[in-house]
Specification:
Layout lengths: L8 H12 L7 H9 L11 E5 L5 H14 L3 E7 L7 H13 L4 E6 L7 E8 L2 E14 L16 E7 L2 H4 L1 H14 L12 E11 L6 E13 L11 E6 L3 E10 L3 H8 L13 E3 L5 E3 L17 H37 L5
Parallel strand pairs: 1-2, 1-3, 6-7
Antiparallel strand pairs: 3-4, 4-5, 5-10, 7-8, 8-9, 8-10, 11-12
Amino acid sequence: HQLKMAPTSAQQRSAKAKVLAGGKPAKARIQRYLKSIEPRLKETGKKTLLLKGIKCSQAMGNVLKDMRAMQAPNAKLLTKKNAIVAFETEGQQSLEFLTTKNDCALFALASTNKKRPNNLVLGRTFDHQILDMMEVGLLRFKSIHDYGGSIPKKRVGSKPLMLFLGDLWQQDSNCEKMQNLLIDFYRGDVIDKLMVSGLDHLMVFVAAQHPKTEQLIVHHHTYFCKLKKDPNNPTSKVPVPYLVPCGPDMTMMIRRTQFATPDLWKAALKQPQALRKKKVKNQSTNIFGETIGRLHLEKQEIDKMGGRKVKALRRAERAAKLEEMEALENELEKERNEMGQEFKQTYGFKED
């Protein structure tokens, strides 16, 4: 019997292209599409799919519009309503299908009903399957348009500064996972360098507990960052930031969460071999980003080492010897004078 070998990546692409083209040779457009969805060593920013549930009020629709404005151009808003219940198996299959179809790794599902009013589900996928989900209820919402047209808005493609306040972000394991999800949701494109003018808005997340029900509540505030000259130091080129509330602002009460299993989380964190940094022996980096090296040397006997003597060093040695000789002669002369005086006092005449 002839052994069947596993198909190569090129064979898999050609087979997929034939399926998309209906059995015919793949056109250039299909080939370009297949090339665009291939896995890469360095992925671009994650896209977000914004969905409406079975029932979605106008207020929750405004929430999705503001989220699209904050994540533009990496956000896609679907206008049709979808019969999706996120925490059920069929609903998760629908979300996996829609995110794969629209090439989005993040999603937000807004809905409202009598049991869960003003409901918002935030989540992300890995390898076309649900990784994490977080369901929140909006207790308060202030849109971007509620601040008026005079307030400056976030520029398209700019990066946010994210600040997490509260001890719960470090003390509770679920809060740490939610913090990771929020950072992944709003961070935008992955970049190597950033201009100061590219930081034009600040997002603050404050974690607290409800005083009566002790449920976790997250207060989300957004500020526009104006860069102006320092009034105390007009010659300085470093600008001073001034924060202006610009929205969207919301108060979220955590209702349900579904986080990844340890095996799936480990697979999601795995990096390609080509991106892993090779470990350099005897070299480390401190908290300030400085590289520290360690050298291993044998014991050195410095006293027995004969180094090269420069002319300047010889002159210095000669001058030092002359100073020592003069000091010795001065001391001897002083001793002679003292002994001569003692001799004269004793015998009454000077010693020859």
